[in-house]
Amino acid sequence: MTGTVSGQQPPAQAPIRIRPRRRKIHWRRVVLSVSILFILGLTAVMGYTGMTPGDLVKVVGLGAGWVQSRINPSPPFHGRREVNILVLGADVSFNGTGAARTDTIKIIHVDLKTPRMSILSIPRDTWVAIPGHGHDRINSAYMLGGKEETDRLALAKTVVSDLISEISGRPFNIHHYVRIQTGGFIHIVDALGGVEIDVEKQMDYEDPSQELYIHLKPGRQRLMGEDAMGYVRFRHDAEGDYGRIRRQDLFIHATVAQMKDPRMRSRLPRLIGPMMKMMVTDIDQQDVWALKRIIEKVGIAGIHTMQLPTVPCYKGRASVVEVQDQQAAAQVIGDLLNGPRPTVLVLNGARRGRLAGQVSELLDPQDYNVLPPANTAEVVQESAIYTKDAYRDAAEELAAQLGVSTIETGLPAPQADLQRSTPPTAAITVVLAPGYEPPAHGEEHAEVIHTIE
What we know:
The protein is of the alpha/beta class. It is 35% helix and 22% strand. It folds into 3 domains: 29-71, no CATH class; 77-339, Aminopeptidase (3-Layer(aba) Sandwich); 341-452, 2-Layer Sandwich (Alpha-Beta Plaits), CATH 3.30.70. It has 12 helices and 22 strands. The strands form 6 sheets. Strands 15, 16, 17, 18, 19, 20, 21 and 22 form an 8-stranded mixed β-sheet that branches. β13 and β14 form a beta hairpin.
């Protein structure tokens, strides 16, 4: 039987698609056009920001580093897990002229795996051994290195590395440096439109030899370049250099927080020129972008600041500071390298006896970075612990140990009556009222904790 099977249809043909003819792309023309636009754009940027051709090379390099980090990403900092960066700030030009003492000395420790970032401030008058020059203040190490920038940096790195190694009992390597010419600071702050700071008190000081004229009134205000420089350099009070370091840390946090404001984006182009003029570093472009990503990830609250504990003393006629409590200094270095313990300040709100000192002695230094105790400016009515949400768990453990039933997370701690130098602001402040009795060693209270928001 021949013929077709009933119900079976011949296979349908697929529709024929006619593809439009592609136009030939003249890549040489495209590259030439983009190049011309790029050059014109950079010329406009130079005119707008005040950059020099040398600054421009740095910017192009940073941009190339960013592109390279996206196209062919490689492990930052050659695959290291941890990186130590020495930051030096001095009023000296990069050609070696001018005073060469580094009055700002900081170590930035970056844990790239966690990630975590900590900043240690070293007081400029810290008495140290300087190879080939005996003993001197640490801020003179850079100057004593000679006329060449590389030699100055090498000696400064050696002195700082030796100091931290001696305190910690293990080798401490400095992998990179950032040298800041602080004269550009004023221009950057002005380009930002100022930085909002709560000036804690009246600040008055004049030194015509340094062209330094500081006259600041207390209160929250926006500081422009000259006044901002005065704020971060002021040290002529009971806190001395420690207060200057504390204010520098506060200013850094305020500036970073302000830079995150979307309204600041229009001002960023004006920062490029001043920033390139005030900074030199051996960190390559890809690693700069890696640091930027870490800062964005940990946030400003995740950047922990601390300072090397020192005490004032005299070496001959020289007024200096030195590390005398080796255990306390080793604990601070441990915080730098391993993550910080909560910083605790105990205030005597009863203003009687050694109440704050007795309670401070009950706290385990392995668990807390205990600051020297102090009195409150006025007598308080109730014992309480003041902290932030980030330290709430630690504050609750401390409250249970000390028998303090109130934790405040939404109010500032009572003002301390500080008549001497103190480290930066505490993460947890314990305020003791009249009638408070410290627990005996080993005794732990199990009272209900009331958190006040």
